[in-house]
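ok here's Aldehyde dehydrogenase family protein, seq below lol
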Amino acid sequence: MNSPLSALGQSAADFLTRPHLLYIGGSFVPAADGKTFPTHDPSTGERVTDVPYAGAADVASAVTAARAALDGDWGLLPAAARGQLLARLADLIEQHAPELAELEALDGGKPVAVNEFMDIPAAIGHFRYYSGWPTKLEGATIPVMVPGTLCYTRLEPVGVCAQIIPWNFPLMMAAWKLAPALAAGCTVVLKPAEQTPLTALRLAELVDEAGFPPGTVNVLTGDGTTGAELVGHPGVDKIAFTGSTAVGREIASRAGASFKRVTLELGGKSPNIVLADADVEAAVAGAFDGIYFNSGQSCVAGSRLYVHRSLYEDVVARLAAATREAPVGPALDRSTGYGPLVSAEQYHRVRGYIQDGIAAGATLLAGEVPPAEPEGGWFVRPVIFTDVTPDMRISREEIFGPVLVVAPFDDVDEAVALANDTGYGLAAGVWTRDLGQAHSLAARLKAGMFYVNGWALGDPAAPWGGMKSSGIGREMGRANLDAYLEVKTVWTVYATQ
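and the structure came out like this:
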């Protein structure tokens, strides 16, 4: 079998063949105890390379370095200089976009063409958007009732931030976390998911090349134990986490006990509604992309589809036909539209849900139960379940794979009840020509984001996040900047009676 390096460009291959090190205080160093762990290619299951396993000592060093930068060179930089460094980092990511797209495909299984079209441009866009914010962060003077006083507010960075990112959008999520924190003047210890460490390590090299003061950004590779050390470290002022609701709940509990600021972007079981007057062709295309993009490994996946009974058979038939044509294949193959799942663990998790759906009485209309031990990579073709009920696990739990459940409804009130019958609240959407009905549903559905005749639209300026078990706070936009800022009120008595 060919080495993974054989499908890569020279820059990505060169990166893989050199030593991989933690980035702490502006230096590239091995883990304090010398430990490493492997990262694998989901398209083949083969080991790609080894990366450092950061332990408690490395966490302590990174937090100390971040604090020193906050109190030193980074904290003393003018706002305009912070913006210039963010813009420089965006330029460097753009210069290395082909390399980063390949590393992302090799490490996470997302097709390289998708990375080039979406993930890498989105990361660049985030750094460019937030590069304009440092000089716009202003306090306010307040016309208070107390005579002879000046009252004003200052916006100050919240401090040292631990940022823990997931494996489904590694570089893009790093940008989502880093850009607003740095724009606000914070310093960061970034921990990528253990499944996808490579682009974070390459990003550390670009941060260093951009000229950020040592300690401003620190990058630690490791697993959940590393993340737990970060969350519990007393020198961390804020935690930003994207990942599962179960882990987010644990982080929130620990952060609350020590009064640390926290933002959590968690899971979803998002409903997508097709009304009777919908453009069927557009609705089918949107529903297909809404669930199967990134092989269903997305918190915002439209995994529950509710279709008006008058359109139900037509929509289901079209979706089933589309699944049969889906170009599933290796991530570095440019003809691939849908890559493998990220890991053996995720593969078996999704396989278990498919088996559970069949056992519960749902009809497996499209797709199949993947083999217990796959040959090669961790591929699961798109799956559609019909004849589902709201109490089934496949209807209620986040699967994080290419599994869609479809059910009919007879009127809008029934659709609303079905859609809101969930502990999650990340996203929801509707397909309709009646914009009055659409905006009525936007108010009735309990979700942080609502899409009309589209799915998972995004922009660095538009807040992203959910309600209920889908998280706390928002990513992107001014709302995310506020999460990295403290408001200080200053009172000055300048006259006495």
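fwiw DSSP finds 17 helices and 19 strands in the chain. kinda neat tbh
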